[in-house]
Amino acid sequence: MKIYRILYIRELVMWLLFSSTVFAQNMGQVNGFVKDASNGEGLSYANIIIKGTQLGASSKKNGYYFIENITPGKYVLTASYMGYKESSKEIMVEQGRTIRCNFELEPSPIELKGLSVSAERTRFERDITISTFTMKKTDLEKASIVGEADIFRSLQLLPGVIGTSDFSSQLYVRGGSPDQNLILLDGITVYNPTHLGGLFTTFNADAISDVELMAGGFPAKYGGRMSSILNITSKDGNSKKFSMSSSISILSAKTLLEGPLPKGSWMGSIRRSYFDILFKNTRFDFPYYFYDGMGKVNFDLTANSNVSVAGVLGEDVLNFLIEEDDEELGKLDMRWGNRGLSGKWRQILNPRLYGEVLFAWSNFRTSMNLEFQESGFRFSNEIVDYTAKGDFTYILAPNHTLDFGFDAKNITFDFNVEIDTIKYLDDIDTAKVLALYLQDKWEINPLFILQAGIRPTYFSPGSRLRLEPRLGLKYRVASNTTLNASFGLYSQSLTTVNSGEELFSIFDIWLPIGEEYAPGLSTHYILGVEQWISDDFIFSTEGYYKKFEHLVELNQEEFGEDDFYKGSGYATGLDFLLKKSRGRLSGWASYSLSLTKRTFNNETYCPRYDRRHNLSLTFELALPWRLKLNFTQLVGTGFPYPGVIGRYPKTEYDFSGDSLITDWEEIMAPRDYYRYPTNHRADIGISKAFTWKSLKGEFSIEIINLYNHKNVFFYIWDLEEDSPVKRAVTMFPLLPTIGLKVNF
Q1: What is the pTM of this model?
Q2: Percent of the chain having pLDDT more than 70?
């Protein structure tokens, strides 16, 4: 009887496969792209429906959509997207054929009645985006630093993301350090994403299309870092017409150019600081400048194939003479910066299967030349990263997709130290990483979505293999309320040598984790609720626990022994976000309650970026007469610091003076013994749009630290007084700035 049951099951399976194939052959399909008619950029989460039926789809990130199982006949296909005019086209669906229907939607400042399904609503209902925040250019403009819209400053206003000072735009995401964030620009890994020691980022916000931060629980497509993924996409360029915009702020001047190509588009931007030029040959001679540039070219090979090439270039230069009594003793020349290039091929292999293959090169180089009359010191550090990556999506059914791909890296680290003509260090290390991934996203029913994946990753040196499972869940407990959960393992084989206790770092020095150390490992547990209040109003809250294992910290005390200390840690917290995305008043408020702990050398402590409470409010208000008001309020409890708890006299023999010298020595407290005072600051800005002849522009005034609160950066201890004195070094005072932007 058993053999007959097996044969019966086999026949049943064959019949089901045959029936589904015949059914598919008797039906038709439609696919295409939804784009912005003003510039040709793809629109993600656009809604495409066949009127008079229950059939429809939402577009992917590049604007691609696919609808299947359509009964042959004539239909009206409609595409809609909030902020754009609805577009409809008649189509004739034929048996066993795929019809191509592309849409170009015209931007509309008027919200059309009846257009109730927005891109944000589609994401809310049909996608698992746990701990994911997406920002457009309008969001980035809500936060600036000294008149410059800045990506990282905007991200620091989100829940779970912390900035440690006014002088640093580095990101500390849910208890992770900055080197635990993977930063991608058009697929290029950016290792040092800031200028001027972290004051602001190397990315020109005007050239950015969108920014996506995955603060935890990210899917199997991504790996290589333990805390977060920051995926930045530059603008494709205007495929309809040539345009140019230029602006100047107190920090820099910049220009953005974009325009069409036959079957494509291009974009380029450049930015440079100008204080060194402005004060050249004066007594205020400024020895520092920076520049950066971004570019992109897109070309449609066929209706189903696209090729794009993107590049980034940036450098900081510090160059000055060392003088004493008008006599030149030597000179210092320091340079550090990023270069990168990526090529991406996108292809619709068939209506159900599409993907992209990317090749990228990234280079971060640091050099320092210190020359005196009879001696010199030279240091250089260089990272060269070659990446090959493939990402593919197969649409099994309208509610079921399969993602798979590969991610391969070859990274070379080059260190050189030379004193006079003697090389003290000439070291080259190589790290290889190879990962595959498979992920299944299944909308089991209208209420429940499951996303499960696996990412096996091979690391060298050490020849280690890690299996990294990923799991995401979404359950709609009510029509406007979802319950989200996520779990995942994340590995990292690179680290920086920067100390976790540093207040300020000009640039990062990266190293591969040696074969004697296991790659870092973090485990993410996330549970959250998202509430849809209205079409432009969303509230979300998430609780998380992040466990860190195999952490390393640079050994700065004992040379000749281990290069790193081994440690562990955890981070836990609650994040809240209330966001209004459209209307005269738009913006968001966020609050985070968090705790971060690290354990090294049997000492458990809170690292210097641990902040218990963090509150931010940012909004933009449209006023009459083409005026716009921006306001940001920041409040955060103090970071930990060790401080001085005492002093003692220390006597040493001075051989040069043949005498005994007694000085006071500090007695330092444990690493997190003290806390700085609560930090708070308000920034306000107002801008006026204008038109003069054929030019359009915007003039802006901004005031940083509106009420001139003296936020403490660090303390200096003066031990020479009879009673030791603690003096505070503060951050930005009240600082007004102006800016001008012109569009051609």
Answers
A1: 0.88
A2: 89
Supply the DSSP string of 546-603, one letter for each residue: EEEEEEEEE--S-TTS-SEEEEEEEEEEEEEEEEE-SSSEEEEEEEEEEEEEEEETTE
CB 739 within 8 A of CB 700: yes
Cα separation, 275 vs 263, whole angstroms:
41
The whole-number pLDDT of residue 656 equals: 64
Strands 640-641 and 47-50: what pairing?
A: unpaired
Calculate ∠ Cα 45-41-259, nearest 5°: 175
The bridge status of strand 448-460 relative to strand 422-445 is: antiparallel
Q: Inform me whether the pLDDT recorded for 114 exceeds 50.
A: no
Which three-class secondary structure state does DSSP give residue 314?
A: strand
**Distances from the Cα of 594 to the Cα of 162, 175, 176, 460, angstroms:** 11, 8, 12, 34
Are 231 and 184 contacting, i.e. CB atoms less than 8 angstroms apart?
A: yes
Residue 383 and residue 412 in contact, taking contact as beta carbons nearer than 8 Å: yes
Dist CA 468 CA 487 (whole Å): 10
CA separation, residue 4 to residues 14, 17, 406 (Å): 15, 20, 42
The answer to whether 37 and 105 have CB atoms below 8 angstroms apart is yes
- In 373-399 the beta strands, taken as DSSP E runs, fall at 376-397
Structure tokens at 688: 């006026």
Distance in angstroms (rounded) separating the CA atoms of residues 53 and 65: 17
Return left, alpha or beta for 645; rule: phi > 0 is left, psi -120 to 50 is alpha, else beta: alpha
Evaluate if residue 194 carries a pLDDT over 50.
Answer: yes
Please identify which residue in the block is written with the tokens 């499951």: 450
Enumerate helices (H) and strands (E) in the chain, giving the number of each: 5, 50
Q: Which two tokens stand for residue 69?
A: 């199982």
722 phi/psi in degrees, rounded to 5: -60, -40
The CA distance from 76 to 72, in Å, is 13
How far, in Å, CA of 475 to CA of 485, rounded? 9
Q: How confident is the model at residue 412 (pLDDT cuts 50, 70, 90)?
A: very high
Residue 438 has pLDDT above 80, yes or no: yes
Task: Give the C-alpha separation, 158 to 592, whole Å.
Answer: 9
| pLDDT tens digits, 211-221 | 999 999 999 99
Minimum mean pLDDT range among 108-122, 296-310, 324-338, 555-569: 108-122
Among the listed residues 728, 727, 719, 608, the one whose alpha carbon sits nearest the alpha carbon of residue 674: 608
What token pair was written down for 35? 């784009």
Average pLDDT estimate for 557-561: 56
User: Using alpha carbons only, how large is the chain's radius of gyration in Å?
Assistant: 28
Which residue in 114, 142, 139, 280 sits closest to 212, CA to CA?
139
165 Cβ contact partners less than 8 Å away, ≥ 6 residues apart:
503, 713, 731
| Domains located in the chain, CATH noted | 24-113 (2.60.40.1120), 641-670 (no CATH)
| pLDDT of amino acid 558 | 52
pLDDT reported for residue 212: 92
Alpha-carbon torsion angle 33, 34, 38, 41, nearest 10: -60
Task: Give the Cα-Cα-Cα angle 681, 683, 688 (nearest 5 degrees).
Answer: 175
